[in-house]
Amino acid sequence: MAGSSLWRFAVSPSANxxxxxxxxxxxxxxxxxxxHHVIGREYARVDITxxxxxxxxxxxxxxxxxxxxxxxxxxxxxxxxxxxxxPETASQDAYFAVVLLHGRYRLQQDGxxxxxxxxxxxxxDATRPHRIECPEPFAKLLVSVPRQLxxxxxxxxxxxxxxxxxxxxxxxxxxxxxxxxxARQADCIDTARFSPLAGQALxxxxxxxxxxRPGRFELADHRAQALSCIxxxxxxxxxxxxxxxxxxxxxxxxSPRYINALFxxxxxxxxxxxxQHRLQRCAEKLRSKHHAGRSxxxxxxxxxxxxxxxxxxxxxxxxxxxxxxxxxxxx
Length: 331
What we know:
Number of strands: 11
Structural class: alpha+beta
Shape: globular
Largest sheet: 6 strands, antiparallel
Helix content: 40-55%
């Protein structure tokens, strides 16, 4: 089967923490309800049309990838329809970039339809109505990108949904090859080295998608560059407990008011952005087997939290459970 080598990671030891989910161990009568629940929890709330002439089968392996998630999915033929709905979880408030590995795949959204061939890419908005039709067994990669993150990188991204990006040449080929290679090597590269590839994946996706926008969408370059510079500065000093708005403004040579105005355009504030990214780093370490021996306090202190009660409250607000429960669920 074309692309079958990609699925070897599903049964091999992994250098990265991954969530493996499959219908294989369930009786056929329970598979549809189980899959409905899992897709709703991890991706989007959908109605499922199972295959007419075969048993429903679906398996997925989900890798946390900094702010992104990389999923490798293979399935029997299936139909999915997402009705109008509001996102209930952070995982649902996202754009999904599809890379088809093999099979037939039709994506419909916003009055557009994309018929994908192996290697092709398409984007869709998980929060808006969409329909996916796969009339035969298929395999795909799915890159989940938080809505806010992609919107800040690409003005007019809402005009890019359900448009086929050929994987046979140009930027589409570069991006498709990169994502497929990352998925093949995900179990061979440890988390510390695999995670930074997420930034390159996002850069490639944004660059590739930018060609699909109407010509009137142009980013305000000076503001975008200033914001990018500030975020790099924050990333470099994220573990510093003394990092506050004054320190960031001084290092960037800009006023705190101007910096907050830049972040306000993304519906957040400077320090909220800092705390969210610190929580994200802590969550990554709690998922990692390499940090299983470290205490919650060590991890929190490592990423700039010096008040454990504040850390626990903030973590529970962001992830819906305590840090210790999160570690046990993902372990």
